[in-house]
Design a protein that fits this description.
Elements lengths: L10 E5 L3 H12 L3 E5 L11 E4 L2 E4 L5 E2 L2 H8 L11 E3 L4 E4 L5 E4 L3 H11 L2 H26 L12 H9 L5 H8 L3 H6 L19 H9 L2 E4 L5 H12 L3 E3 L4 E7 L2 E7 L4 E3 L2 E4 L3 H8 L5 H4 L6 E9 L9 E4 L5 H10 L8 E4 L14 E9 L8 H18 L9 E7 L1 H6 L32 E3 L10 H16 L4
Parallel strand pairs: 1-2, 1-14, 2-10, 7-16, 14-20
Antiparallel strand pairs: 3-4, 5-9, 6-9, 7-8, 11-12, 12-13, 15-18, 15-19, 16-17, 17-18
């Protein structure tokens, strides 16, 4: 039996309408609880934010959607069908990868199609190796999902299951890069099937092979795009929750939690309103929630190591590029060096690898007629690095534009009509510890049972949700974290 909150659970306040908070709210409403969600912004979404500017609608957070079954699962808790709330387009290709030698590789979810693509671009032996790699990550997912990701873990002893032995035998606890290289011999396929480690905040050389499960989630299971942009997801979840009785208070900031004898009694808002509750679910970044709402910084939280950060440039443009897919990854020549710079040396990439997403490719309504929107992401060190973003930010923006133009985006700078830059300093201002939108890194000692727990130590009825707690970072993990938070309150949600 996993630990649960103590005492009554009839009346729950969820602080923050991020994806995890919304996932928890739907499950709690489905279990008959009275739920109030308090959100400081005017819209739901949290990191999955929205920016409207001069007729362009920009997603400010995640741009890649995988595992839509997890959204279906949350909606099903209140008897709703995803098809009634979201129009999901399967992306083909999932990604288009561009390499420094001028070659490119389209990444497909269909194994046969991907084998043909690899055979054509690289060679038949590599295609055979890819087939074996898919078998490996599919088994990894099967053994890992139920026992290690999709459940509340109170102790490392909870992991002693038959699937742990299977994962060890499979090589899941060896390093990711050598494990990938066992199957894939060409640097191009090695990069495209291991770059996902960056989302977990560790380099492929340091990450455990179990993180290849992220590659399974997108490169095998598929990538989707919701019509209306990524922000359509939190809008749908919030609207479904509201339909089923969840109360939302937007433009409202929780400033403190009233506590008595180890229990939260009420939340206090910036307008001085006192909202009584039996349980509190905290969706802000976990270290910030501890510091600002619980007035504590436990040693385990102080010691956390954080993922690299990123700079995003949202662009509304009058120029379109025919050679692009929806998601485009431009790999520099350097690979190990990129991670070395970001994580060890904490310097800016000298030979950047870049993600460019083109949302208007699958939904032209996100921009004025004839215009194109771009979401450009450059990984950077987090705020533990000695970089003055106030000073560097505008210069780095120019370097980003220059790098894009060198990678085939002719006249990119000249064609910009609207833009919005977000640096690690901005992420910090939005409430992310060390300016790291990918939260604390998934090092071995910050993963699974060693990641901060979702029950607040010292309190009987405070639960965390979001990327800072179990199971971790990324849209699928965060949706799962909302379910795990709800299960701490009402038990397993069917």
């Amino acid at each position: 039996m996993t630990a649960r909150v103590k005492g009554p659970t009839d009346n729950v306040v969820v602080v923050g309408a991020g994806l995890a908070g919304l996932s928890a709210a739907l499950r709690l409403a489905g279990a008959g609880r009275k739920v109030t969600v308090i959100e400081r912004e005017s819209v739901p979404g949290g990191r999955n934010g929205l920016l409207n500017k001069s007729g362009f609608s920009f997603d400010t957070g995640p741009s890649v959607l995988t595992m839509p079954d997890l959204i279906s699962d949350a909606l099903a808790c209140v008897g709703e069908d995803i098809k009634d709330w979201l129009d999901l387009v399967p992306l083909k290709p999932l990604y288009r990868a561009f390499y420094d030698d001028g070659t490119q590789l389209d990444v497909h979810a269909d194994t046969n199609q991907m084998q043909s693509e690899i055979a054509k671009t690289i060679g038949s032996q590599e295609a055979i190796g890819y087939g074996k790699y898919v078998d490996f990550v599919t088994k990894l997912y099967k053994y890992e999902m139920n026992d290690f990701i999709d459940r509340n873990i109170d102790s490392p002893l909870n992991l002693l299951t038959p699937n742990l032995a299977r994962l060890i035998a499979l090589g899941g606890f060896r390093k990711l890069a050598p494990k990938v290289n066992q199957f894939l011999k060409d640097p191009r396929t090695q990069k495209v099937y291991s770059f996902q480690a960056m989302y977990a905040g560790v380099s492929p050389q340091q990450a455990l092979a179990i993180y290849a499960v992220i590659a399974y989630m997108d490169s095998v299971n598929g990538v989707f795009f919701p019509k209306g942009g990524m922000h359509a997801v939190p809008r749908a979840l919030a609207a479904a929750a509201e339909k089923h009785g969840v109360a939302f208070k937007y433009n409202t900031t929780v400033t403190s939690i009233e506590r008595q004898n180890g229990r939260a009694k009420a939340v206090i808002t910036d307008s001085g309103e006192r909202i009584e509750c039996d349980v509190v679910v905290l969706n802000p970044d976990l270290p910030i929630a501890w510091r600002d709402l619980l007035d504590k910084e436990p040693l385990s939280i102080k010691r956390l190591k954080y993922s690299p950060s990123c700079v995003t440039l949202l662009v509304g443009s009058n120029k379109n590029y025919e050679h692009l897919a929806h998601h485009n990854i431009h790999f520099g020549k350097s690979w190990d060096g990129v991670f070395d710079e970001l994580i060890k040396k904490k310097t800016l990439m000298s030979d950047p690898s870049i993600l460019v997403t083109v949302p208007t490719m699958d939904d032209p309504s996100l921009a004025p007629a004839g215009k194109t929107s771009y979401y450009v992401l450059f990984p950077t060190p987090n705020l533990t690095a000695d970089i003055d973003w106030q000073k560097i930010g505008p210069k780095y923006r120019d370097e980003m534009v220059k790098a894009l133009e060198e990678r085939g985006y002719k006249d990119f700078g000249k064609s910009i009509e609207v833009e919005h830059l977000t640096t690690p300093l901005d992420w910090q201002k939005q409430g992310m510890a060390q300016g790291a939108p990918f939260a604390s890194a998934h090092t071995f000692l910050q993963t699974g049972p060693f990641r901060p727990r979702n029950l607040a130590k010292g309190y009987e009825n405070i639960v965390f949700a979001g990327s800072g707690t179990q199971p971790g970072v990324g849209v699928p993990m965060v949706l799962i974290s909302g379910r795990l938070a709800a299960e701490r309150i009402v038990g397993p949600v069917k």
